[in-house]
Amino acid sequence: MSKAKRLLDILLFVSAKKKFTAQEVADEFNISIRTVHRYILDLSDMGLPIYAEQGRNGGYTVLTSRLLPPILFTEDEVVSIFFAFQSLHYYRDLPFNTEIKSASHKLYSSLQEEAQRKVDKLQSYIAFWNPKRAIETPLLKDALEAALANKNLHIQYESKSGTTTKHIHPLGVYAHDALWYMPAFDFTKQKILLFRVDRILSIIESEENNDKFLNLEEWFGSPYETKQPIRLHVLLSREGVRQCKSDPNLGDFIVITQDGTGYIDSIIDKGELNFISPLFYRLGIHAQILEPKELITILRKQAKDILSMYPEND
Hints:
This protein has 11 helices and 13 strands. The chain is of the alpha+beta class. The chain folds into 4 domains: 3-62, Orthogonal Bundle (Arc Repressor Mutant, subunit A), CATH 1.10.10.10; 75-122; 140-221; 229-309, no CATH class.
């Protein structure tokens, strides 16, 4: 039997046992104790987390039982996985930051020299760039683990109105524009709200949950409910069309006319007005709001506030 095959068999055996002695491995595979120790060292060098217990009754403990058997990848597959990891480098915080770095290092180390040179060269010509935020998200992994464990949370949350205590059930977490968001059911308001994970100051306590809630995938797939429907009617210049097409919140609503100008005529929720107002403020003269009047009022106030900061000199 080849050494590689024997190592794989021992890997599967000790992963299933979790705790074992060298004698148990020797008996199972009909090899000497000395050979077992040599194989254990090889497995440890390959990344298997094994803890050796000293003493007469000592043995070995596999520190994690969630191990995968070796998987054969083509060189191009390894390169593609490596660059999938690279796409995450611009996020300041990730739920599995240490594990991603470790896996990326293992993948790179497994490549032949020619493939490593290819990866090195590709890194100079391709990047999955996102603006790197200075904001830290220290409780990201805790929030994700609470969602996975189907737990409810009591959190301290920082919002515009100040720091408040929330009783919530997290549905999951997702990244957008280099920030992490967590939709969660708010038990006080009895509805799903969207929280910025970096604004969670602390998780006070968690509790077991027996109720059924949506998960993140189901929440993304659920139809959007417009509770306060209001008409959004906007005329766009050619430049306004160009900029709106680049905005994921507006792109699907644009109707383009023959001369390249366009318009938006759709129904939105009134609660979105404060969210979309900065988008139209940025468009300036390239977007003329016809409806709703509430949005026009918001934009006029924003413009007046800016002008008040820069009065004309007599």
